[in-house]
Amino acid sequence: MYTDGACIGNPGPGGWAWAVPGGRFASGAAPHTTNQRMEVTAALEAVTALPGPLQVVSDSTYVVNCFRDRWWEGWMARGWRNKAKQPVANRDLWEPLVEAVRADPGRVSFRWVKGHGTDAVNDLVDRLAVEAARNQRGRTGLGTPADLGSADTVGRRGSAAVGAAGTAAPEGHLIVVTGHRPPALGGYDDNPVADRTRHELAEILAAKRVLHPDLVVLTGLGLGAEQLGAEAAAAADVPYVAVLAYPDPDTMWPAPSKAHFRELLAGASATIVLESRAPATRPLAGAALRRRDAWLARNAAEALVVWDGTGTDVGRLVRSLSDSLGEAEVWVVAPATTT
Question: Is pLDDT at 161 greater than 50 in this prediction?
């Protein structure tokens, strides 16, 4: 059984769908939602509607990884909070889905499939979800409808664009969040400095979303301020886009850091990878990161930079962003102290 979700605008009008190969299908709509909510809704609707053993096949790593990597166990152990100690986004959907899966252990499994590939049923649920999002009306039936529209060209969660400097930026009012790495934020593990900084970023993003309803956070998902920016965006219910300098930047990271990176990457509304190959040396990696920073400066409307005023690398980035965006559009946030 296959599932998919779609959203026009993210947030915006959305649709979900599930289909059994050669059998039943169903779709539905929501007037104001996100890609992630539609992906989870599709799985929830399918698991609760269909009896017997099920394999949920989805192109959403957000859905599949939750069960493959057992994210839900950590969420429940922490009282439905994530590793950043923030409330789990979309808990109202995740909780009944997790309970439905747990109610009959072994009945439901999950498998990832590449989106926009050659899988006919993945294409079917894609088209059904897009149709529901556009028409704001669902349907049910058997087989493949003859009157389906085109595949997903609306904003979809988790899609990845790969290119060079000319890679297109997402739509919306774009704000980049960057700054210090963990040593200047209390360390690599959870700590009060990082917690308070994350909370402050979330408050700023929530206020900016009032001014700009189409606000989108751009983040490189590097350790430190960039990951805090993604976590703060999720807490403020603001979509974030992962902008990676090159593929798999977490290759050499410790296992816990890698797992958290993958969780944040799965939660992004989209992923942009600027260069198709990972650099072979550290100097080449540094050059690729500088090219990424230049791309961010060209495409963002504003910047939030976590900086204590002393780090030369971050200071250089602040000056570069100020030159590109104007000083008034670069907001410096000092790391929150524990006092």
Answer: no
For residue 214, indicate whether it is catalytic: no
> What does the pLDDT look like over 18-42, one tens digit per residue?
999 999 999 999 998 888 899 999 9
Residue with tokens 């204590």: 308
The ranges assigned to domains in the chain are: 2-155, 160-333
Known catalytic residue at 39: yes
Active-site residue identified among 15, 28, 39, 231: 39
CATH number of 160-333: 3.40.50.450
- What is the tens place of the pLDDT at every residue in 224-267? 999 999 999 999 989 999 999 999 999 989 998 998 999 899 88
Confidence of residue 84 (pLDDT cuts 50, 70, 90): low
The domain covering 2-155 belongs, at the CATH homologous superfamily level, to Ribonuclease H-like superfamily/Ribonuclease H (3.30.420.10)
- How far is it, in rounded angstroms, from Cα 42 to Cα 124? 13
The span from the CA of 86 to the CA of 199, in Å, is 9
- Please confirm, yes or no, whether 226 is among the known catalytic residues: no
215-219 β-sheet, strand order = 159-162, 270-273, 240-244, 215-219, 173-179, 302-306, 330-333
pLDDT at 152: 53
Q: Is the pTM of this model over 0.85?
A: no
* Cβ proximity of 283 and 260 under 8 Å: no
Find the catalytic residue in 9, 14, 123, 126.
126
Residue 170: phi and psi, rounded to 5, are -70, 165
Q: In whole angstroms, what is the distance from residue 3 CA to residue 125 CA?
A: 6
